[in-house]
Write a structure and sequence with these properties.
This protein has 267 residues and is an alpha/beta fold. The protein is built from twelve helices and eight strands.
Length: 267
């Protein structure tokens, strides 16, 4: 369904099931459908699985303004509040992990009780010269040929075998994003250091990361854990960057189990 977050800007929101809510924030440059395996499984097990497309991505509007961490985080808060979600497990993947962390750190939203950061390069994706060089090259590639840039990135996500059909399906999700939002997402990850946000996170936080991630090395997850008090790293032993594919059932089961735990036990 489409929901108008501000005048003239409609976000696509997928709201499945009934029960305790789990909200998914997708990564660059795709959309909420990367989580459909998990969302379907969780909805069938009695949870409310909510995914939405960030402005500029997927099936949402493609405005010129607002393609940044601050506005994407505000849009996330708008979705949570307008769906009247409470006791939310908030799941942020890649770019979406930065947005989810930034949202909670800056809002302290009491509706969100747990935070899952998945394959996320926090606090700053381009903290080293090598990382910055990768972002510069990817931005240049996107300006020159967005479709090929997205295809090449998609090809590097997996550790488990993937069909040609799924590869093309995932590429299509990224291909339909606006070129402006695609580049702005890269620029935000390159330029924004969210270190000051991480010390403000006080809700139970788990960091899910693939051991074989070639986009964001596993060592980044270990470093991130030291910056968020009380957080826990969950090693995804059979995953690359695309945990939602490489361990789709294990990932859904892990989110279900953690969501069901009491806050005292989850901390």
């Amino acid at each position: 369904m489409k929901m108008e977050v501000t005048k003239g800007v409609n976000l696509f929101v997928q709201d499945w099931g009934r029960g305790k809510p789990i909200v998914f924030v997708h990564g660059w440059p795709y959309g909420h459908r990367i989580f459909e395996y998990q969302m379907m499984k969780l909805a069938n097990k009695g949870y409310r699985a909510v995914g939405f497309d960030l402005r500029g991505y997927g099936y949402s509007e493609r405005p010129w303004d607002g393609n940044n961490y601050d506005t994407w985080a505000a849009d996330l808060g708008w979705v949570i509040k307008n769906l009247d979600l409470r006791d939310v497990t908030l799941v942020g993947y890649c770019l979406g992990g930065a947005i989810a962390a930034h949202y909670w750190a800056t809002s302290k939203d009491s509706r969100v009780s747990k935070l899952a950061l998945v394959s996320t390069a926090l606090p700053w994706a381009a903290s080293s010269p090598e990382d910055k060089k990768w972002y510069e090259a990817t931005i240049k590639s996107c300006y020159e040929d967005q479709a090929k840039c997205t295809w090449d990135f998609t090809s590097n996500l997996f550790h488990q075998p993937v069909s040609a059909e799924y590869h093309r399906w995932l590429w299509d999700l990224g291909r339909i994003a606006s070129i402006h939002a695609t580049i702005r997402g890269l620029e935000e990850m390159r330029d924004r250091d969210l270190s000051s946000d991480l010390g403000k996170i006080t809700i139970p936080t788990r960091i899910y990361h693939g051991v074989y991630d070639k986009v964001i090395p596993f060592s980044k997850a270990e470093a991130l854990q030291k910056l968020i008090k009380g957080s826990t790293v969950v090693r995804c032993e059979n995953s690359g960057h695309a945990i939602y594919w490489d361990e789709k059932d294990n990932f859904a089961d892990a989110l279900e189990k953690w969501t069901a735990e009491s806050l005292a036990k989850a901390a």
